[in-house]
Amino acid sequence: MNVYDSWRIAAMLDARGMEQTDSVADADIIILNTCSVREKATNKVFSELGRIRDAKKPNALFGIVGCVAREAGATAFHRMPDLNFVLGPQSYHKLPQILENPDARLLNIDLSGLEKFDEMPQMVTAPVVSYIPIQEGCDHCCTYCIVPYTRGREISRPFADVMRDTLHAVKTGAFEICFLGQNVNGYKYTDGNGKTYHLSDLIRETAKIPHLYRIRFTSSYPTEMTDDLIEMFKTEPKLLPFLNMPIQSGSPDVLKRMNRPYSLDSYLEIIDKLRAARPDIQISSDFIVGFPGETDADFEQTLKIAKQVRYINSYSFKYSPRPHTAAALMPDQIPENIKRERLAILDNTLNEIQREFNETCVDKTFTCLCEGSDKTGRHLLYRTPYMQQCIVQNRDDSSAIADIKITAANRASLRGKDVTLK
Ligand code: SF4
Predict the structure, then answer these.
(1) Bond from prior residue into 314 cis (ω within 30 degrees of 0)
(2) How far is the CA of 354 from the centre of ligand 1 (A)?
(3) Same domain? 72 vs 218
(4) Same domain, 147 and 184
(5) 148: Cβ below 6 Å to ligand 1?
(6) Is the same domain home to 215 and 166?
(7) Last-in-domain residue among 108, 130, 157
(8) Which of 82, 108, 134 finishes a domain?
(9) Which of 20, 161, 292, 388 has a 20 to 30 Å separation from 81 between CA atoms?
(10) Are 96 and 20 within one domain?
Protein backbone atom coordinates (compact mmCIF):
# COMPACT_ATOMS: atom_id res chain seq x y z
CA MET A 1 0.00 0.00 0.00
CA ASN A 2 2.84 2.36 0.85
CA VAL A 3 4.61 1.59 -2.43
CA TYR A 4 1.44 2.55 -4.28
CA ASP A 5 0.98 5.70 -2.18
CA SER A 6 4.58 6.71 -2.92
CA TRP A 7 4.00 6.27 -6.66
CA ARG A 8 0.97 8.54 -6.50
CA ILE A 9 2.87 11.17 -4.50
CA ALA A 10 5.69 11.05 -7.07
CA ALA A 11 3.16 11.39 -9.93
CA MET A 12 1.60 14.40 -8.19
CA LEU A 13 4.98 16.14 -7.91
CA ASP A 14 5.94 15.13 -11.48
CA ALA A 15 2.76 16.83 -12.68
CA ARG A 16 4.01 20.02 -11.01
CA GLY A 17 7.25 19.87 -12.98
CA MET A 18 9.41 18.41 -10.23
CA GLU A 19 11.95 15.65 -10.83
CA GLN A 20 13.06 12.81 -8.62
CA THR A 21 16.59 12.72 -7.25
CA ASP A 22 18.43 10.02 -5.32
CA SER A 23 20.39 12.61 -3.38
CA VAL A 24 18.92 14.17 -0.24
CA ALA A 25 21.44 17.00 -0.57
CA ASP A 26 20.02 17.96 -4.00
CA ALA A 27 16.32 17.71 -3.11
CA ASP A 28 13.97 20.65 -2.62
CA ILE A 29 11.44 18.48 -0.83
CA ILE A 30 11.99 15.18 1.01
CA ILE A 31 9.03 13.01 1.92
CA LEU A 32 9.37 10.03 4.21
CA ASN A 33 6.44 7.66 3.66
CA THR A 34 6.08 5.70 6.86
CA CYS A 35 4.67 2.44 8.19
CA SER A 36 3.60 1.88 11.78
CA VAL A 37 2.52 -1.74 11.57
CA ARG A 38 5.56 -2.82 13.58
CA GLU A 39 7.37 -1.03 16.36
CA LYS A 40 10.79 -1.35 14.72
CA ALA A 41 9.71 0.54 11.60
CA THR A 42 8.19 3.33 13.70
CA ASN A 43 11.33 3.70 15.79
CA LYS A 44 13.45 4.13 12.68
CA VAL A 45 11.41 7.07 11.41
CA PHE A 46 12.70 9.75 13.74
CA SER A 47 16.35 8.68 13.52
CA GLU A 48 16.00 8.76 9.72
CA LEU A 49 14.43 12.22 9.93
CA GLY A 50 17.45 13.38 11.94
CA ARG A 51 19.77 12.13 9.18
CA ILE A 52 17.68 13.88 6.53
CA ARG A 53 17.67 17.16 8.48
CA ASP A 54 21.47 17.09 8.71
CA ALA A 55 21.99 16.23 5.01
CA LYS A 56 19.39 18.41 3.28
CA LYS A 57 19.75 21.92 1.85
CA PRO A 58 18.83 24.57 4.48
CA ASN A 59 15.69 25.65 2.64
CA ALA A 60 14.56 22.20 1.55
CA LEU A 61 11.18 21.09 2.90
CA PHE A 62 10.92 17.77 4.68
CA GLY A 63 8.24 15.82 6.47
CA ILE A 64 6.46 12.54 6.99
CA VAL A 65 3.39 11.04 5.41
CA GLY A 66 1.63 7.75 6.12
CA CYS A 67 0.78 5.83 9.24
CA VAL A 68 3.49 7.12 11.61
CA ALA A 69 2.37 10.65 10.69
CA ARG A 70 -1.21 9.74 11.64
CA GLU A 71 -0.05 8.08 14.86
CA ALA A 72 2.34 10.85 15.92
CA GLY A 73 0.23 13.84 14.78
CA ALA A 74 1.37 17.17 16.23
CA THR A 75 3.84 15.44 18.58
CA ALA A 76 6.02 14.86 15.50
CA PHE A 77 6.70 18.62 15.45
CA HIS A 78 7.74 18.49 19.11
CA ARG A 79 10.14 15.64 18.47
CA MET A 80 11.52 17.28 15.32
CA PRO A 81 10.85 21.05 15.41
CA ASP A 82 12.31 21.61 11.92
CA LEU A 83 9.70 19.39 10.25
CA ASN A 84 7.56 21.14 7.63
CA PHE A 85 4.67 18.69 7.20
CA VAL A 86 2.93 15.72 8.82
CA LEU A 87 0.26 14.10 6.65
CA GLY A 88 -1.66 10.92 7.44
CA PRO A 89 -2.27 8.13 4.90
CA GLN A 90 -5.53 9.67 3.73
CA SER A 91 -4.21 13.23 3.51
CA TYR A 92 -1.13 13.10 1.33
CA HIS A 93 -2.99 14.74 -1.56
CA LYS A 94 -2.77 17.93 0.57
CA LEU A 95 1.01 18.02 0.07
CA PRO A 96 0.91 20.82 -2.58
CA GLN A 97 -0.29 23.19 0.17
CA ILE A 98 3.21 23.16 1.66
CA LEU A 99 4.70 24.03 -1.74
CA GLU A 100 2.36 27.02 -1.99
CA ASN A 101 3.00 28.12 1.57
CA PRO A 102 6.43 26.80 2.57
CA ASP A 103 6.75 28.98 5.67
CA ALA A 104 3.73 27.42 7.39
CA ARG A 105 3.66 24.01 9.04
CA LEU A 106 1.21 21.59 7.51
CA LEU A 107 -0.54 19.05 9.72
CA ASN A 108 -3.40 16.91 8.47
CA ILE A 109 -4.11 13.47 9.87
CA ASP A 110 -7.84 13.37 9.06
CA LEU A 111 -9.46 10.17 7.91
CA SER A 112 -10.99 11.69 4.80
CA GLY A 113 -11.96 8.41 3.14
CA LEU A 114 -11.51 8.13 -0.60
CA GLU A 115 -10.88 11.84 -1.31
CA LYS A 116 -7.21 11.29 -2.15
CA PHE A 117 -8.04 8.92 -5.02
CA ASP A 118 -10.13 11.61 -6.72
CA GLU A 119 -7.67 14.45 -6.18
CA MET A 120 -4.44 12.81 -7.29
CA PRO A 121 -3.30 12.84 -10.94
CA GLN A 122 -2.89 9.48 -12.69
CA MET A 123 0.58 8.14 -13.30
CA VAL A 124 1.78 8.82 -16.86
CA THR A 125 3.49 5.43 -17.15
CA ALA A 126 2.36 2.47 -15.11
CA PRO A 127 4.86 -0.05 -13.71
CA VAL A 128 4.70 -3.57 -15.22
CA VAL A 129 3.18 -4.71 -11.94
CA SER A 130 0.60 -2.09 -11.04
CA TYR A 131 -1.05 -1.94 -7.66
CA ILE A 132 -4.66 -0.82 -7.69
CA PRO A 133 -6.12 -0.07 -4.25
CA ILE A 134 -9.75 -1.11 -4.07
CA GLN A 135 -10.45 -0.16 -0.48
CA GLU A 136 -9.08 1.81 2.44
CA GLY A 137 -9.05 0.88 6.11
CA CYS A 138 -10.23 -2.25 7.87
CA ASP A 139 -13.15 -3.18 10.11
CA HIS A 140 -11.73 -6.41 11.49
CA CYS A 141 -10.15 -5.01 14.64
CA CYS A 142 -7.54 -7.70 15.28
CA THR A 143 -6.31 -6.91 18.77
CA TYR A 144 -2.65 -6.45 17.73
CA CYS A 145 -3.24 -4.26 14.68
CA ILE A 146 -2.89 -0.49 14.41
CA VAL A 147 -4.34 -0.31 10.87
CA PRO A 148 -7.97 0.43 11.92
CA TYR A 149 -6.56 3.42 13.86
CA THR A 150 -4.18 4.70 11.20
CA ARG A 151 -6.21 3.98 8.05
CA GLY A 152 -9.71 4.13 9.51
CA ARG A 153 -12.90 2.22 8.83
CA GLU A 154 -13.13 0.05 5.77
CA ILE A 155 -14.41 1.77 2.63
CA SER A 156 -14.59 0.11 -0.78
CA ARG A 157 -13.88 2.29 -3.81
CA PRO A 158 -16.54 2.57 -6.54
CA PHE A 159 -16.35 -0.29 -9.05
CA ALA A 160 -16.20 2.14 -12.00
CA ASP A 161 -13.28 4.04 -10.45
CA VAL A 162 -11.30 0.86 -9.87
CA MET A 163 -11.94 -0.29 -13.45
CA ARG A 164 -10.95 3.15 -14.80
CA ASP A 165 -7.63 3.00 -12.90
CA THR A 166 -7.07 -0.60 -13.99
CA LEU A 167 -7.65 0.19 -17.68
CA HIS A 168 -5.39 3.23 -17.44
CA ALA A 169 -2.64 1.11 -15.86
CA VAL A 170 -2.83 -1.53 -18.61
CA LYS A 171 -2.90 1.10 -21.36
CA THR A 172 0.20 2.76 -19.94
CA GLY A 173 2.39 -0.29 -19.35
CA ALA A 174 1.01 -2.74 -16.77
CA PHE A 175 1.17 -6.47 -17.54
CA GLU A 176 0.06 -7.48 -14.08
CA ILE A 177 -2.60 -5.96 -11.84
CA CYS A 178 -2.48 -6.49 -8.08
CA PHE A 179 -5.65 -5.39 -6.30
CA LEU A 180 -4.83 -4.01 -2.87
CA GLY A 181 -6.71 -3.71 0.36
CA GLN A 182 -6.15 -4.46 4.02
CA ASN A 183 -9.16 -6.76 3.74
CA VAL A 184 -9.12 -7.03 -0.04
CA ASN A 185 -11.48 -9.97 -0.40
CA GLY A 186 -14.06 -8.10 1.70
CA TYR A 187 -14.45 -5.60 -1.19
CA LYS A 188 -18.11 -4.68 -1.54
CA TYR A 189 -19.49 -1.69 -3.41
CA THR A 190 -23.12 -0.88 -4.15
CA ASP A 191 -23.72 1.60 -6.98
CA GLY A 192 -26.57 4.10 -7.39
CA ASN A 193 -28.77 1.45 -9.04
CA GLY A 194 -28.45 -0.88 -6.08
CA LYS A 195 -26.09 -3.30 -7.84
CA THR A 196 -23.47 -4.70 -5.51
CA TYR A 197 -19.99 -5.61 -6.75
CA HIS A 198 -17.51 -7.95 -5.09
CA LEU A 199 -13.87 -8.75 -5.74
CA SER A 200 -14.93 -11.61 -8.03
CA ASP A 201 -16.71 -9.04 -10.26
CA LEU A 202 -13.55 -6.93 -10.45
CA ILE A 203 -11.47 -9.97 -11.38
CA ARG A 204 -13.95 -11.15 -14.04
CA GLU A 205 -14.07 -7.70 -15.65
CA THR A 206 -10.32 -7.15 -15.43
CA ALA A 207 -9.60 -10.54 -17.01
CA LYS A 208 -11.35 -9.30 -20.18
CA ILE A 209 -8.73 -6.58 -20.77
CA PRO A 210 -6.47 -7.49 -23.73
CA HIS A 211 -2.71 -7.32 -23.13
CA LEU A 212 -3.16 -7.86 -19.41
CA TYR A 213 -1.54 -11.16 -18.46
CA ARG A 214 -1.73 -11.58 -14.71
CA ILE A 215 -4.09 -10.68 -11.87
CA ARG A 216 -3.60 -11.14 -8.15
CA PHE A 217 -4.82 -9.57 -4.93
CA THR A 218 -3.57 -9.04 -1.38
CA SER A 219 -4.20 -9.27 1.54
CA SER A 220 -7.04 -11.70 2.19
CA TYR A 221 -8.94 -12.37 5.38
CA PRO A 222 -9.91 -16.05 5.74
CA THR A 223 -13.61 -15.65 6.49
CA GLU A 224 -14.09 -13.36 3.47
CA MET A 225 -12.95 -16.11 1.08
CA THR A 226 -16.38 -16.67 -0.44
CA ASP A 227 -17.31 -19.38 -2.95
CA ASP A 228 -17.73 -16.89 -5.84
CA LEU A 229 -14.15 -15.73 -5.27
CA ILE A 230 -12.78 -19.27 -4.97
CA GLU A 231 -14.56 -20.06 -8.26
CA MET A 232 -12.45 -17.37 -9.97
CA PHE A 233 -9.35 -19.52 -9.48
CA LYS A 234 -11.08 -22.17 -11.56
CA THR A 235 -12.53 -19.99 -14.31
CA GLU A 236 -10.04 -17.13 -14.80
CA PRO A 237 -6.63 -18.34 -15.97
CA LYS A 238 -5.20 -14.83 -15.66
CA LEU A 239 -5.71 -15.02 -11.89
CA LEU A 240 -2.38 -16.34 -10.58
CA PRO A 241 -2.39 -19.67 -8.71
CA PHE A 242 -1.01 -18.01 -5.61
CA LEU A 243 -2.82 -16.57 -2.61
CA ASN A 244 -1.68 -14.80 0.54
CA MET A 245 -4.23 -15.76 3.21
CA PRO A 246 -2.74 -15.02 6.64
CA ILE A 247 -3.53 -17.42 9.45
CA GLN A 248 -1.26 -15.55 11.95
CA SER A 249 -1.28 -18.42 14.51
CA GLY A 250 -2.10 -22.13 14.55
CA SER A 251 -3.47 -21.97 18.10
CA PRO A 252 -7.24 -21.54 18.54
CA ASP A 253 -6.62 -19.84 21.92
CA VAL A 254 -4.23 -17.31 20.42
CA LEU A 255 -6.56 -16.67 17.48
CA LYS A 256 -9.34 -15.94 19.95
CA ARG A 257 -7.18 -13.42 21.82
CA MET A 258 -6.16 -11.92 18.47
CA ASN A 259 -9.89 -11.47 17.73
CA ARG A 260 -9.58 -13.52 14.57
CA PRO A 261 -12.77 -15.55 14.79
CA TYR A 262 -12.16 -18.56 12.55
CA SER A 263 -11.50 -22.13 13.49
CA LEU A 264 -8.60 -24.12 12.12
CA ASP A 265 -11.11 -26.50 10.54
CA SER A 266 -12.89 -23.69 8.69
CA TYR A 267 -9.53 -22.27 7.54
CA LEU A 268 -8.39 -25.67 6.25
CA GLU A 269 -11.74 -26.18 4.55
CA ILE A 270 -11.15 -22.98 2.54
CA ILE A 271 -7.70 -24.26 1.53
CA ASP A 272 -9.29 -27.54 0.40
CA LYS A 273 -11.84 -25.64 -1.71
CA LEU A 274 -9.09 -23.52 -3.26
CA ARG A 275 -7.07 -26.61 -4.14
CA ALA A 276 -10.12 -28.28 -5.61
CA ALA A 277 -10.76 -25.18 -7.76
CA ARG A 278 -7.10 -24.82 -8.82
CA PRO A 279 -4.97 -27.89 -8.08
CA ASP A 280 -1.68 -26.02 -8.69
CA ILE A 281 -2.49 -23.20 -6.24
CA GLN A 282 0.05 -22.34 -3.52
CA ILE A 283 -0.76 -20.47 -0.33
CA SER A 284 1.30 -18.00 1.65
CA SER A 285 0.64 -16.66 5.12
CA ASP A 286 1.68 -14.04 7.64
CA PHE A 287 2.59 -15.25 11.13
CA ILE A 288 2.97 -13.47 14.44
CA VAL A 289 5.00 -15.30 17.08
CA GLY A 290 5.11 -14.38 20.75
CA PHE A 291 1.61 -12.93 20.94
CA PRO A 292 0.71 -12.21 24.61
CA GLY A 293 0.05 -15.45 26.45
CA GLU A 294 1.41 -17.68 23.66
CA THR A 295 2.62 -20.92 25.28
CA ASP A 296 5.10 -23.44 23.90
CA ALA A 297 2.09 -25.64 23.05
CA ASP A 298 0.44 -22.75 21.16
CA PHE A 299 3.63 -22.19 19.21
CA GLU A 300 3.88 -25.91 18.39
CA GLN A 301 0.42 -25.64 16.83
CA THR A 302 1.67 -22.82 14.59
CA LEU A 303 4.56 -25.01 13.44
CA LYS A 304 2.13 -27.85 12.85
CA ILE A 305 -0.19 -25.82 10.63
CA ALA A 306 2.77 -24.37 8.70
CA LYS A 307 3.93 -27.90 7.88
CA GLN A 308 0.41 -29.11 7.15
CA VAL A 309 -0.51 -26.34 4.68
CA ARG A 310 3.06 -26.11 3.36
CA TYR A 311 2.95 -22.37 2.96
CA ILE A 312 5.36 -20.78 0.52
CA ASN A 313 6.61 -17.19 0.42
CA SER A 314 5.37 -16.34 3.91
CA TYR A 315 6.11 -13.49 6.28
CA SER A 316 6.78 -14.08 9.97
CA PHE A 317 7.27 -11.48 12.66
CA LYS A 318 7.77 -11.17 16.39
CA TYR A 319 4.74 -9.62 18.04
CA SER A 320 5.37 -5.97 18.89
CA PRO A 321 2.92 -3.97 21.01
CA ARG A 322 1.41 -1.08 19.09
CA PRO A 323 -0.32 1.97 20.57
CA HIS A 324 -4.12 2.13 20.32
CA THR A 325 -4.39 -1.69 20.32
CA ALA A 326 -5.96 -4.02 22.89
CA ALA A 327 -3.13 -6.57 22.80
CA ALA A 328 -0.60 -3.99 23.99
CA LEU A 329 -2.46 -3.93 27.32
CA MET A 330 -2.79 -7.71 27.68
CA PRO A 331 -1.00 -9.47 30.54
CA ASP A 332 1.58 -12.20 29.86
CA GLN A 333 3.63 -10.26 27.32
CA ILE A 334 6.26 -12.69 26.03
CA PRO A 335 9.94 -11.92 26.76
CA GLU A 336 11.98 -10.80 23.76
CA ASN A 337 14.40 -13.76 23.92
CA ILE A 338 11.54 -16.28 23.67
CA LYS A 339 9.99 -14.38 20.77
CA ARG A 340 13.37 -14.37 19.04
CA GLU A 341 13.84 -18.13 19.56
CA ARG A 342 10.38 -18.96 18.28
CA LEU A 343 10.78 -16.73 15.24
CA ALA A 344 14.06 -18.45 14.35
CA ILE A 345 12.41 -21.89 14.63
CA LEU A 346 9.43 -20.85 12.52
CA ASP A 347 11.64 -19.16 9.92
CA ASN A 348 13.73 -22.33 9.61
CA THR A 349 10.59 -24.38 9.07
CA LEU A 350 9.17 -21.97 6.48
CA ASN A 351 12.52 -21.68 4.70
CA GLU A 352 12.83 -25.44 4.47
CA ILE A 353 9.33 -25.75 2.98
CA GLN A 354 10.16 -22.94 0.53
CA ARG A 355 13.40 -24.67 -0.52
CA GLU A 356 11.58 -27.96 -1.05
CA PHE A 357 8.88 -26.25 -3.10
CA ASN A 358 11.45 -24.39 -5.19
CA GLU A 359 13.22 -27.69 -5.91
CA THR A 360 9.96 -29.23 -7.16
CA CYS A 361 9.86 -26.43 -9.77
CA VAL A 362 13.07 -27.56 -11.51
CA ASP A 363 12.39 -28.77 -15.07
CA LYS A 364 8.93 -27.18 -15.05
CA THR A 365 8.09 -24.30 -17.38
CA PHE A 366 6.19 -21.25 -16.12
CA THR A 367 4.97 -18.15 -17.89
CA CYS A 368 6.86 -15.42 -16.04
CA LEU A 369 6.91 -11.64 -15.93
CA CYS A 370 10.12 -9.65 -16.28
CA GLU A 371 10.54 -7.03 -13.56
CA GLY A 372 13.90 -5.67 -14.69
CA SER A 373 17.55 -6.62 -14.75
CA ASP A 374 20.15 -7.19 -12.06
CA LYS A 375 22.80 -4.58 -11.29
CA THR A 376 25.24 -6.00 -13.83
CA GLY A 377 22.63 -5.95 -16.62
CA ARG A 378 23.70 -9.47 -17.54
CA HIS A 379 20.61 -11.11 -16.09
CA LEU A 380 16.89 -10.46 -16.22
CA LEU A 381 14.79 -10.93 -13.10
CA TYR A 382 11.54 -12.69 -13.83
CA ARG A 383 8.72 -13.39 -11.37
CA THR A 384 7.03 -16.78 -11.55
CA PRO A 385 3.29 -17.18 -10.95
CA TYR A 386 4.24 -18.10 -7.34
CA MET A 387 6.17 -14.85 -6.83
CA GLN A 388 9.54 -16.61 -6.87
CA GLN A 389 12.37 -14.62 -8.38
CA CYS A 390 13.86 -16.37 -11.40
CA ILE A 391 17.21 -15.25 -12.81
CA VAL A 392 17.58 -15.59 -16.57
CA GLN A 393 20.41 -14.63 -18.89
CA ASN A 394 19.73 -11.27 -20.56
CA ARG A 395 19.35 -11.17 -24.32
CA ASP A 396 18.39 -8.35 -26.66
CA ASP A 397 15.36 -10.29 -27.86
CA SER A 398 14.00 -11.13 -24.36
CA SER A 399 10.42 -10.13 -23.77
CA ALA A 400 8.45 -8.95 -20.76
CA ILE A 401 6.33 -12.11 -20.66
CA ALA A 402 8.17 -15.34 -21.40
CA ASP A 403 7.97 -19.07 -20.86
CA ILE A 404 10.84 -19.88 -18.55
CA LYS A 405 12.09 -23.41 -17.93
CA ILE A 406 13.46 -23.70 -14.40
CA THR A 407 16.99 -25.13 -14.42
CA ALA A 408 18.09 -24.74 -10.77
CA ALA A 409 16.65 -23.76 -7.40
CA ASN A 410 17.69 -22.77 -3.93
CA ARG A 411 15.68 -21.38 -1.05
CA ALA A 412 15.73 -17.77 -2.18
CA SER A 413 15.48 -17.93 -5.94
CA LEU A 414 15.38 -19.93 -9.15
CA ARG A 415 17.48 -19.96 -12.28
CA GLY A 416 15.87 -20.47 -15.64
CA LYS A 417 16.09 -20.45 -19.39
CA ASP A 418 13.79 -18.54 -21.71
CA VAL A 419 12.31 -21.28 -23.89
CA THR A 420 10.32 -18.83 -26.02
CA LEU A 421 13.63 -17.80 -27.62
CA LYS A 422 15.32 -19.84 -30.31
S1 SF4 B 1 -7.57 -7.87 9.09
FE2 SF4 B 1 -5.46 -7.18 8.77
S3 SF4 B 1 -5.56 -4.93 8.58
FE4 SF4 B 1 -7.52 -5.64 9.45
S5 SF4 B 1 -7.26 -5.40 11.67
FE6 SF4 B 1 -6.71 -7.55 11.14
S7 SF4 B 1 -4.48 -7.53 10.74
FE8 SF4 B 1 -5.19 -5.38 10.75
Answers:
(1) no
(2) 25
(3) no
(4) yes
(5) yes
(6) yes
(7) 108
(8) 108
(9) 20
(10) yes
Q: Is the CB of 184 under 6 A from ligand 1?
A: no
Residues 199 and 312 in one domain: yes
Helix axes 264-277, 296-309, angle to 10 degrees: 10
CB 216 within 8 A of CB 239: yes
Q: Give backbone dihedrals phi and psi of 169, rounded to 5 degrees, phi first.
A: -65, -45
pLDDT in tens, the chain (422 residues): 888 899 889 989 999 999 999 999 999 999 999 998 888 888 899 999 999 999 999 999 999 999 999 999 999 999 999 999 999 999 989 999 999 999 999 999 998 888 888 888 888 889 999 999 999 999 999 999 999 999 999 999 999 999 999 999 999 999 999 999 999 999 999 999 999 999 999 999 999 999 999 999 999 999 999 999 999 999 999 999 999 999 999 999 999 999 999 999 999 999 999 999 999 999 999 999 999 999 999 999 999 999 999 999 999 999 999 999 999 999 999 999 999 999 999 999 999 999 999 999 999 999 999 999 999 999 999 999 999 999 999 988 888 999 999 999 999 999 999 998 86
Q: Note whether 262 and 141 are same-domain residues.
A: yes
389 CA to centre of ligand 1 in angstroms: 27
- Determine if ligand 1 sits within 6 Å of the CB of residue 221: yes
Ligand 1 pocket check for 354: Cβ under 6 Å: no
User: Strands (DSSP E) along 155-303, which ranges?
Assistant: 155-156, 176-180, 188-190, 196-198, 214-218, 242-244, 282-284, 286-289
Domain extent, residue 38, equals: 2-108
Pocket test for ligand 1, best of 145, 262, 267, 320 (most atoms within 8 A of CB): 145
- Nearest atom, ligand 1, residue 138 CA: 4
Closest atom, ligand 1, to C-alpha of 219:
2
What amino acid is encoded at 191 in this protein? D
Strands 176-180 and 214-218: parallel
- If asked whether residues 96 and 168 sit together in one domain, one would say no
Same domain membership, residue 33 and residue 165 = no
Regarding the beta carbon of 142 and ligand 1, being less than 6 Å apart is answered yes
Q: What is the rounded distance in angstroms from the CA atom of residue 90 to the CA atom of residue 93?
A: 8
In CATH, what number is assigned to the domain containing residue 308?
3.80.30.20
What does R_g of the chain's alpha carbons equal in angstroms? 22
